[in-house]
Each structure stands twice: as structure tokens, then as C-alpha cells.
Specification:
alpha+beta; 2 helices
Length: 55
């Protein structure tokens, strides 16, 4: 445990697996079953994965 002691130069980062709406607009695919108020198809994710895979 002494060898694994925390040091001052270690950073911990966290990432989310939830895309922002702009990301969905750019990289999503059109969903033919879900439409926006203006009649255009809403974008949906082209691939879904579990939270376990995201972690």
C-alpha cells in the first residue's frame, strides 16, 4: 500500500456517455418513427451500448 500512495501529479477524469443535442444532429441517423415539430425526423444514436461498456 505504501508504494501505491497518491501523488500530487495524478489527475482523475470522468466522461459521460450521454451525447449533447448538437452531437446527435451531427452524428446521429434520422429516425423515421420520431419527428420534430417542423416535420423533420429527429436524430437517433446509430449504436447503443450499456453503462457497463461505457465505464
Amino acid at each position: 500500500m505504501t508504494q501505491r500512495k497518491s501523488t500530487e501529479n495524478i489527475s482523475y477524469l470522468a466522461f459521460t456517455a450521454t451525447p449533447k443535442p448538437k452531437t446527435m444532429e451531427l452524428f446521429g441517423t434520422a429516425d423515421p418513427d420520431d419527428f420534430a415539430d417542423d416535420g423533420t425526423p429527429k436524430p437517433k444514436a446509430f449504436r447503443l451500448y450499456s453503462m457497463r461498456q461505457a465505464i
